[in-house]
Amino acid sequence: MGKLLIVGTVAFDAIETPFGKTDKILGGAATFIGLAASQFGAKSAIVSVVGEDFPKEYLDLLSDRNIDISALQVVKGGKTFFWSGKYHNDLNSRDTLATELNVLADFDPVVPGNFKDADVLMLGNLHPSTQLSVIKQMEERPKLIVLDTMNFWMDNALEELKEVIAHIDVITINDEEARQLTNEYSLVKAAEKIQQMGPRFVVIKKGEHGALLFHNAEVFFAPALPLEDVFDPTGAGDTFAGGFAGYLTETKNISFNNLKSAVIHGSNLASFCVERFGTERMVNLNKKEVNQRLLQFKELTQFDIELQ
Amino acid sequence: MGKLLIVGTVAFDAIETPFGKTDKILGGAATFIGLAASQFGAKSAIVSVVGEDFPKEYLDLLSDRNIDISALQVVKGGKTFFWSGKYHNDLNSRDTLATELNVLADFDPVVPGNFKDADVLMLGNLHPSTQLSVIKQMEERPKLIVLDTMNFWMDNALEELKEVIAHIDVITINDEEARQLTNEYSLVKAAEKIQQMGPRFVVIKKGEHGALLFHNAEVFFAPALPLEDVFDPTGAGDTFAGGFAGYLTETKNISFNNLKSAVIHGSNLASFCVERFGTERMVNLNKKEVNQRLLQFKELTQFDIELQ
């Protein structure tokens, strides 16, 4: 059984979609990553920070899924990071209504002793300096370091972002961000340039249009499962990353072929995430549903073809 | 060897992309469909109309590829249909600069006697009444009728469009058009509704994001091949349709599994079409390149996965 160390936000989200709205509910990158990774056998821990206002039931929800939360700092008198957003009718774009950093502003991550030898390090979207600080605390270089980031850091901390990108193995990034980072419109060229910046593997997330995995001259594509209804896209990217990292931690094989499978597992879990608000669907997910949908992925994409 | 009857425009296009611009070059839906279908062994004919200004070398180009052009009317003193467009920087959207119907305005298609028993009828984008007139001229109902259309007819001839849709087996349509036709944002729901209108199979084209094939509860997805450079998207949708129809004509098997293969063949040929202006790449395409890229499609999408 492998060990997975997850760094990222644990937060309150308030979400509005064309189908309804929520008050403050459980959110945050590390939350979605952890829940997705918990579908696999890996032993995982979350490094993060919340305020005193964070409900015990949410902490229990994580530890009940065998996620070690001993390095999830609870700041006395502090308030938990809060994000609020409203999705447009097509669910492909959203407006951020509020971002209250609160305790996240002074977050100083501390890697717990028993995870300094983690096999896989999953760096959720955070300030690149925070991500780098975690890498430096590891006793041995993890077999695989996966990083998720976003355009905000390209705009505001590009040098730090480039530094952390030089230290990692896999980056997950969306198509627009890949283009912004490289000034290349072609995703093939963008992925080539990003590989030159450090990571051996580049995963480009295209939301409802699936995800691409690049490694040297190899490319793999996983579609998003066509769904009758997408309810709330919040957390889909983190769920993808969590499934990806969780699967690789458990299978301990970082060949291109196994990374393909990891992309499918990540896409599969993300397809559940978007069916309900926030973490609701992920919390109630069972193995049978997961396996059924993996078969759907296979039917969706597999074909026989004879050369002419 | 099956018989494929193709109805659609044969035209002049003038194209501007971020990479260059052309004068009037060979274009038109039936042209791209015919060139793509000619990659397979099927015997095909084009029903269309051009003016006296249409160069003999373009006619030869078609007949050299074993496309029967005896039903391609040449109107004395008439001018060929002309379309001009300019693509935006992302190549995903374009402005139409000119549409001169010319001889197309009075086009009255006449199906040649030797193709009234065609196995497959491919109706390229045209006025739905014209498409319907061709169906009615067939002596026996073709084994498969494939129809391509666009939003223009939804805006301007919706009732006629619905009538022709009720007579066909496969519709190829892009994602926005599928949404417009059904008032459903979810493509799964849109495809369900379209099947209720007539066609047993619905192909939703998503351009650089691939294509979906729906039939009852079954779904198949073919990605577009990630390319270093897309040069000119003109004709990609028609090339897709031509590859799809040409493959099915030749293999004479309209099972869902074989339609999957047809979608892959169509996507494969479309990936070449966009590499040069207009028909340039399709005209110079050889079997070896086609087969090589089919293998790339396989590598791009195939995976092994074990259920947990």
What fraction strand of chain A?
15-25%
The major sheet of chain A is characterized as: 10 strands, mixed
So, CATH architecture of chain A? 3-Layer(aba) Sandwich
Number of helices of chain A: 11
Low-confidence region ranges of chain A: none
The succession of helices and strands of chain A, N to C, reads EEEEHEHEEEEEHEHHEHHEEEHHHH
Looking at how many chains there are and whether they match, the oligomeric state comes to: homodimer
Look at the structure and give the mean pLDDT of chain A.
Answer: 96
- The total number of structural domains of chain A is 1
CATH level 1 name of chain A: Alpha Beta
Give me the CATH fold name of chain A.
UDP-N-acetylmuramoyl-L-alanine:D-glutamate ligase
Count of distinct strands of chain A: 15
Report the C-alpha radius of gyration of chain A, rounded: 18 Å
Offer a quick outline of the entry.
Chains A, B: It holds the Pfam family PfkB. 2 copies of one chain form a homodimer. Chain A is built from 11 helices and 15 strands.
What can you tell me about this protein's structure?
The structure is a homodimer of 308-residue chains. In chain A, the strands form two sheets. In chain A, strands 1, 5, 6, 7, 10, 11, 12, 13, 14 and 15 form a ten-stranded mixed sheet that branches. In chain A, strands 2, 3, 4, 8 and 9 form a five-stranded mixed sheet that branches. The model of chain A has no long low-confidence stretch (mean pLDDT 96). In chain A, a hairpin with a 2-residue loop joins strand 2 and strand 3 (20-21). With 308 residues, chain A is of the alpha/beta class. Helix content of chain A is 37%, strand content 24%. Chain A has helices spanning 29-37, 56-64, 128-137, 151-156, 158-165, 175-182, 187-196, 236-251, 256-273, 280-283, 287-301, and strands at residues 3-7, 11-17, 20-21, 25-27, 43-51, 67-68, 72-75, 82-87, 94-100, 120-123, 144-148, 170-174, 201-205, 211-215, 218-222. Chain A starts with a strand and ends in a 7-residue tail after the last helix. Chain A has a single domain, classed as Ribokinase (UDP-N-acetylmuramoyl-L-alanine:D-glutamate ligase, 3-Layer(aba) Sandwich). The relative contact order of chain A is 0.15. Chain A binds chain B through residues 39-40, 89-90, 185-189, 206, 209-210, 212, 218-223, 226-230, 257, 260-261, 264-265, 287, 290-291, 294-295, 297-305, 307-308, and chain B through 39-40, 89-90, 185-189, 206, 209-210, 212, 218-223, 226-230, 257, 260-261, 264-265, 287, 290-291, 294-295, 297-305, 307-308.
